[in-house]
Amino acid sequence: MTNYSPGRIFLSAPHMGGHEKNYVQKAIEDNWVTTVGPNIQGFEHDICQHTNARHAVALNSGTAAIHVALRVVGVKAGDEVLCSTFTFVATPNPILYIGATPLFVDSEPDTWNMSPTALREAIENRLKKGKKPSCLLLVHLYGMPAKLKELIEIANEFEIPVIEDAAEALGSRYGGHQVGTLGQAGVFSFNGNKIVTTSGGGALVTADKNIAEQALFLATQAKDQATHYQHSQLGYNYRISNISAGIGRGQIEVLETRVKQRREIYNYYREKLQDIEGIIFKPEPKGCFSNRWLTTVLLSEDLKVSPEEVRQTLEKENIETRLLWKPMHLQPLFKDSLYYGDGLSEKLFNRGLCLPSSSNLSEEELDKVVKALKRQFEV
Ligand SMILES: *Cc1c(COP(=O)(O)O)cnc(C)c1O
């Protein structure tokens, strides 16, 4: 059960910028309390401005955006979809919604994201069996950009469309480009725990006008052009509300500040914990700029204490930490899925921990976390 006790230090809490209530209040005054209205267009415009995406479609969750993205790039029941195994379950779940099958691909050590070597192995293995994957769904985990150049080159070589799950990586950049904007479609999440929030929401971005139009069509019940209600395709009720979009407008105003604050939190932990040899931080590879959504550390075997023990100890002090995502190919839900790689994500899962990373943490709170960690390791 979620713990809301007073004074709790959360892993990643919402952090309002101040102008959200103006947009929400205006929506209520003008009676745009629905899934159409000026905040929605405004929010989509803001997303494009901040990410340099050509088109944005605001939806009611990141999961919905992944589902719609898979549909618009043409994934059908019975297809196979290449997918990062080191991620949150919301990445592969929509593959199952469609009746397609995930092919899980493991990570490489520089970014913890999809390994280009394992990706090529997966594609070649399936081609030998006479099956061609119909999509590549890759993740930028914890805000760290994946090796997009290599991954997209491989996908292009085999003419496989790319969807970027940038749910955790809004504001991160790869080679100067905002992540989410380099594949056929990109997905952001505005869930309450993400770097900015609409309370719950998501967006699909794309450079392709047809993809944007088709995504909006599917997300609004796939109504054919007719005055009566006529439907030839399966659609969804996935549009964002004008109230949520109003929160989003206020949040996008402070996105750059939130990225700066999360990066400062990462630097704070790294500096204060540098004396503890067994705590390993992840530097940014060349060309990668991470929003540092969550600060993650690996605890070396020498520390003789497991991430779960650390989590439990900090929990007693009302500090929320979290183990790294348990890889999808190890989940009971996906026990029959194919998997390609060398087991790196499982090793990361066994030794890793996410530290409290809310952008509104005070210096005292950060100090409390650092002291609690230091006590744990008796430095
Ligand atoms: C949060 C998240 C999602 C899903 O976003 P929701 O808005 O919560 O549906 C998808 N993928 C990853 C990697 C996430 O962290």
UniProtKB/TrEMBL annotation:
What are the protein's UniProt keywords? Aminotransferase, Pyridoxal phosphate, Transferase
**What molecular functions are annotated in GO for this chain?**
transaminase activity
Against InterPro entries, the record matches this protein to: DegT/StrS_aminotransferase, PyrdxlP-dep_Trfase, PyrdxlP-dep_Trfase_major, PyrdxlP-dep_Trfase_small
Q: Which domain of life is it from?
A: Bacteria
Q: Which family does it belong to?
A: Belongs to the DegT/DnrJ/EryC1 family.
Name of the protein in question:
Aminotransferase class I/II-fold pyridoxal phosphate-dependent enzyme
Organism listed in the record: Pontibacter silvestris
